Amino acid sequence: MLDKYYKESKAESINKVIAMISIFMLFMIPIIMYKYVSVSYSPIFNASAYSSGAKADVFNFFKMLLLNLGTILILGMYIYRVVVLKEEIKSKKLNVVIIIFAIFIAMSALLSQYPDIALFGNYDRHEGAITWFCYLAIFFVLYNTNIDEKYYKYFYYALIPFIAINLILGIIKLTGYDILSNSLVNNMLGGGLGGQLFTTLYHYNFGSAYASIIFSVSFMYMLLENDTKIKVLSLIMSVLSFAILLTMISAGGFVTALFMLPIIIVIGIRFTNVKEVAIWSIAAIVLDAIVYVILNNINPVVYDESFSLIAKINDISGLIIPGIVIVFVALVFMMKFVNRKIVFNVILGVVTISIFAGSIFISSSIEKEKKILAQDPNADIVRMKDSAMYQKLNTMSTDRLNIWVKSIDLINDNPIFGNGLDTYPYVMVQKDEDSGISTFGEYIDKPHNWYLSLAYGSGIIALLGLVAIIIYITKGTFDKVSDKVDNKYIYIFGIGTIAYAVQGFYNDSIIGTAMIFWIFAGISANMLSKEN
């Protein structure tokens, strides 16, 4: 009996440490920066950015080290629970998914044309198979760990330093001042640095995306929280994160925030009264509008990467925006009055199948075009990329559609095991018909799509593993909304996970941003598993 109580007490202590380490990683990894110089031996010679030589990385090397160290610690503690404390590994479905996922990541590295890059990652990203093993290990441990609810709010508080630092960087950059010209800042980051510093996350696209996730989480927290102090803090965080995504001059975060906002409001209405949701939502939107006006006055380019998108969408078809409004009203009605899980399940199924069907159609169209042109290079065919709709969508997506099509072409070559994670720029420059050059004359170094990036790197089976995790959390979250399960953290962490999944359609994964997904997803899956 004493042995049983000892083991339970020991397990609780270990779980607390796992939570603390996870919170620390969520706090520190997105903001840590320092120069690291390494010698890169490149397999290509015609792209100066990716040729051999000494390379400096400010953003991701120390993020990678911290990720590896944190993963070793929490995985070691979990193994101690299993081996020494004899904790049973439960046969949950997601555990099987994670194992299969990990196997295909390992196989993709072993079978890659560039196994060293596929294992350790590219010199400026460090997101090879080892990093993905860390992601899966973090998710696995959190999914199988009982974390006391009193620690949940600290996962949210861990996001505050990112907001503080990146808001300062974003505003400074928006004014046109080069912060790296300040010798103190330059030396703090290792010295001798050139270029531009927008964010602690390597690129302004990532900064915008991460800010949109914090915006979504904060807005959800604000609507569901009863404590006025935390409610006000969440309001402030939502406004500041909105400010960051505007200062990043990247449309991705703005699109994610717009997409998530109706869903968040619908959930808020489900659990609180309409009046309270309206008051807090209007307060947040008014403050966001004030922030927008101020920032747009500082630099009018803010409009070009935010609200101008609405006009661009309307140019494609005048029916799109009214259609979105109708869908939102229908969603509010359904969640407030109809309360049918089957409706959401059908919607989720249709969306998932439509995305896969569209990808398969593009893949088959590419192969068909290649086959015809291989037989007759002068064949008179209308290629997909020559259509008027394609050109409009590609312009609006800042050449992303063109890059996605090229990425699908590479996936076609190795659909099962992929080409190796982080090898994309090297394979693209060799196999692409345009030698990996975008419409804007730049080297294409990533797919600009999380899902295509994984499918390219580790194959379709690995992608299905990721999709299974996302569907489990998305479906589970909305099932609990339908059942009116009164646990605000299910929806706070669930919304964060879903927001990351949404921005993944037009952004890649990178260590600094990935932490919020794998940690929030692990906690969400754990809570949903216990509720079920």
From TrEMBL:
Give GO MF terms, alphabetically: ligase activity
Topological type in the membrane? Multi-pass membrane protein
What's a Pfam family this protein contains? Wzy_C
Please provide the record's keywords in A-Z order: Ligase, Membrane, Transmembrane, Transmembrane helix
Subcellular localization, as worded in the UniProt entry: Membrane
The record's section on InterPro entries has: O-antigen_ligase-rel_domated, WaaL-like
Q: Which residues cross the membrane?
A: 17-37, 61-82, 94-114, 129-147, 154-172, 202-223, 230-248, 254-271, 278-296, 316-335, 342-362, 450-473, 485-503, 509-528
Major localization listed first in the record, in broad terms? membrane
Where in the numbering of this chain does the O-antigen ligase-related domain appear?
Answer: 324-466
The domain of life is Bacteria
Q: Which GO terms describe its cellular component?
A: membrane
Q: What is this protein called?
A: O-Antigen ligase
